[in-house]
Structure formats: structure tokens, C-alpha cells
Amino acid sequence: MLSYQHHFHAGNLADVHKHALLAWMLSYLTQKDKPLIYIETHAGRGIYDLSAPAARKTGEAARGIGRLHAAFAPTHPYAQVLDKLRGAQGDQAYPGSPLIAAHLLRPGDAIHLAELHPGEHAALKTALSPYRAKLYAQDGFELAHGLVPPTPRRGIMLIDPSYEVKSDYQDIPRHLAKINRAWNVGVLVLWYPVLSNGAQRPLRRGLAAAHPSGFGHEVHFAPARPGHGMQGSGLFVINPPFGLHTAAAEITGIFERLHDPRSEEDAGPDLC
Predict the structure, then answer these.
(1) Burial of 195 from C-beta contacts in 10 A (0-12 / 13-18 / 19+)
(2) Computed over its alpha carbons, how large is the radius of gyration of the chain?
């Protein structure tokens, strides 16, 4: 689907969850002096202006990174990327996952990004122009299957579709299984929304059954507005890096402190 525009939702609570753990994983993996590859199947535009009308219209960034930026220690890799970008481009600049990866990876590492939407792809090309990244105007899953097993073998893949195509919930486990068979050492990171109708539950249960050594983490929060279906954010990681459980527990704590028991928030974050 080409209708989804992430700049309406950039910097929301789901982004904070996803990007904080992605930044931690990238920082951890770069501690070893061996090259990495980063692959992203649904890259978006790379950088977002939170003062733009699209971002301000929903108010999701204000409830997300606007509230939680100060909750991260200055030494957290997510906070370091935010501070560096805002120092260069202003307080309303927010990095998407491709730019987070570009900031944390090293000159010898490889970056491959797929974005099919023409406007988003053009914006991504501009945002990533200072970095040595390969961009593809291609379906993300086609790119993923075509690249694995990659060179170098060490690396991480982020799969972050919009889920506007309802068959994604059935198709993604098959894609993950095939990618995992071809690249059994790759860190595969899937983001999914936690919805009020529970559409994510069969996906989560199926992934846990198929990949028993994988790691799942969810945070829950109040809907962005009345009637909005997303009530949380989930990640499932195949071949999770050592220490990810501890890093995720810290994120759980941040979201727990966000919860106000006097409001009509939901039950709060949990591990899946």
C-alpha cells in the first residue's frame, strides 16, 4: 500500500519503543570490531519535522518523544542520536530508523533500505545523502529475500510494515521463517501494533511457537485519540543480542512511569 504516511505518527509512543530498542541493539552490535549490515524493509523518509502540520495534527509526537525524551539517560544510544540530530537540525527534528542506524553504524558497515512510496523514497534519498547507504524503490520483502544471506553475515534487519494490508498478519510469519532459514545468524526485528481488536495476538503466538528462542516485548498505552485502535507497540526479535532482556526491562520501566493511574490509561506495559 502506498497511502501510509508516517509523518502523521513520527515520534509517537510506538516510535519511542521501537527506536530505543533498535538503537540499543545497534550500539551493542557495533562494540565488536567486525563489519555489520543493516537492512530495513519499510524505511520511510528517514527524518521528520515534528513542527510540520502533519505531525502537529495528530499530537502523537507531543505525547510520545515530547514527554519521554528526558526519561532516557544521556548515555543511552537513542538519546545520543536525538541530541546529536537536534543539535544539528533543531529541536523539532526526529530521526526515523534509517537515520538512527546511519548515526550509530561505522564507515565500514553496510546499509540497505527499501521504500516503495515515490515521495517517501525521494525524501529518504535526501536524508541519507551524507551516508553510504543503498536505497531501493522496491517492495521490502522482495529486497529482504534477495539480499539474504548477505555480506557481511553479521547484521540486523528491521521489518516495520504499516499493516494496512490485512494479510500482513498471515504473510509476515512466512517471510520471517524464509529469511531466518537463509540467514540463520541475522538479528531479525519485527515491529507490530498492539490493537484493541487483538489482531496481533495470533501473529505473536505463532512467532513465539515457531521461534522459541526469540524475544518478544510489548508496551501498552492509551489510544492517541478516541476510537484509535492502537493501544501499544510490540517487537519480536529472532537471534536477540545478549542483554536485550535487560535493555527492554528499562524501557518497560520508562513506560510504567508514563502511566498515570488517575487517567483512563490501560493496564500498562508487559513482556510477551
Answers:
(1) middle
(2) 17
Q: What CA–CA distance (Å, rounded) separates 61 from 35?
A: 34
Q: Give dist(CA 126, CA 31) in Å, integer.
A: 29
Q: What angle do CA 179, 181, 184 make, to 5 degrees?
A: 90
**Is 270 noted as a catalytic residue in this protein?**
no
Selected catalytic residue, list 160, 168, 171, 266: 160
Phi, psi angle pair for 188, to nearest 5°? -105, 120
Is the per-residue pLDDT at 265 higher than 50? no
pLDDT number for residue 7 = 62
d(C-alpha 206, C-alpha 228), whole Å: 25
Specify the amino acid at residue 231.
Q
Q: Is the pTM higher than 0.85?
A: yes
Give pLDDT tens digits for 187-222. 999 999 999 999 999 999 999 999 999 999 999 998
Angle between helices 77-89 and 97-104 (to 10 degrees): 100
> What pLDDT was estimated at residue 120?
94
Q: 11 — alpha (psi -120 to 50), left (phi > 0) or beta?
A: left
Q: Where are the alpha helices (DSSP H) in the chain?
A: 13-29, 53-58, 60-63, 65-68, 77-89, 97-104, 118-127, 140-147, 168-182, 200-210, 244-258
Give the count of beta carbons closer than 10 Å to the beta carbon of residue 206.
Answer: 17
- For the chain, what is the mean pLDDT? 91
